[in-house]
Amino acid sequence: MNKLLTTLLFSSILISTLFSTSYGQNQNCSAFAFRNNQIFATCNALPLLNSVLHWSYHPDNHTVDLAYRHGGVPNTDWVAWGLNIDGTRMVGSQCLVAFRNSSGEIHAYTSPVSSYGTQLAEGALSFNVPRIGAEYSNNEFIIFATLELPAGRTNFNQAWQNGAVSGQALTAHVQSGDNMRSFGSVDFANGELGGGGSSVTSRQRRRNVHGVLNAVSWGVLMPMGAVFARYLKVFKAANPAWFYIHVACQTSAYIVGVAGWGTGLKLGSDSTGIEFTTHRNIGITLFCLGTLQVFALLLRPKPDHKYRLYWNIYHHAVGYAVISLAIANVFEGFDALNGQKNWKRAYTGVIIAIGAIAVLLEAFTWFIVIKRKKTDSNKHTQNGTNGTVNPYGNGTHQQA
Ligand SMILES: *[C@@H]1O[C@H](CO)[C@@H](O)[C@H](O)[C@H]1NC(C)=O
Ligand SMILES: *[C@@H]1O[C@H](CO)[C@@H](O)[C@H](O)[C@H]1NC(C)=O
Ligand SMILES: *[C@@H]1O[C@H](CO)[C@@H](O)[C@H](O)[C@H]1NC(C)=O
Predict the structure, then answer these.
(1) Which residues bind heme b (predicted)?
(2) pLDDT of 106-129, one tens digit each?
(3) Which of 147, 218, 241, 356 has the fewest CB neighbours in a 10 Å radius?
(4) Structural class in CATH, domain 32-194
(5) pLDDT at 399 over 50
């Protein structure tokens, strides 16, 4: 039994180490200092073509102030970045374009792309762009703009590109390699980026996986395991069984929970700059306390050992702390996802159900225990039982 637990524990630690190594390998775009000292709340390195997107999203007026940096290009290139509102990739994208024009100045303008043969002619976009400007230095173009985003969404497909300027004409970009894969998606509200080819739905799926893994493990299995331990223990017939059910519940919850925790770290590392700080900190605390509980299981003293009482107090305190934090963090997670109201309702329902079952079992247990004490004291009337009726203090912690 202990060997199995040790193996499980160390494989969980291994998994989480793998996840945390990939965490933090992202380019640190927040260290970039703009010449005009502009500060953006969020930044994300685009996966290809030396490009980085910085932005601040203002939910109250649904606008975004952004800077698009495209490095490693000569000043005889043009660069463009755009949102594609209804489609993916190039055709249909609403672009911001910059190049050095014949007067030697960096010219920035908007251009809706309607076909593959586009010359990136100036034109109004399908949404308002109240401000646009650009600069070039250190082989890097930077386009600054403010976009009034289309109503009702913050998640868009995006594409970015560069190509050569020949005379007055913006010629087509390279038709191979990275230039054919420089598209993806961006969510201005939560900072997440979908890499080349990864669509909005695949990222949503990853978030859902994270949510389901953690809600089920930390949020449902762990409280259930505690309910089993607390209420089955009272029944003599369930004596070793409750312990195994409890351990099975908590270890499987822990293992699934660690996997869910890893997906959370990965989601966090994929959206540099946007931080759900509370959710993340509670998550890390949970991982530590959960791991401590598993270790504590391996180190618990024998039932009749004089320190067992302290161990029990410790185990219950940490256990209840983990469960309370876990439930709170599942709700934090729903809030971070804003818009998953049905999930929140479903989870609230499950928690209320578990709570109600616990209350009923609590009442039932006291009933049983009091009855049992009465029968016992009737059997050996003058036996001087000290009268305390605590259903849980009666040493039924067994020895498995
Ligand atoms: C990124 O750079 C910012 C600003 O210099 C710094 O505060 C932050 O700690 C850095 N983050 C990482 C992960 O290096
Ligand atoms: C939108 O709101 C932000 C602050 O919430 C403000 O700084 C910005 O100027 C506003 N933008 C527009 C275009 O109204
Ligand atoms: C070059 O771009 C600048 C800045 O946008 C603009 O003021 C100027 O008129 C442009 N020159 C030509 C020849 O188009």
Answers:
(1) 210, 246, 279, 315
(2) 999 999 988 877 888 999 999 999
(3) 356
(4) mainly beta
(5) no
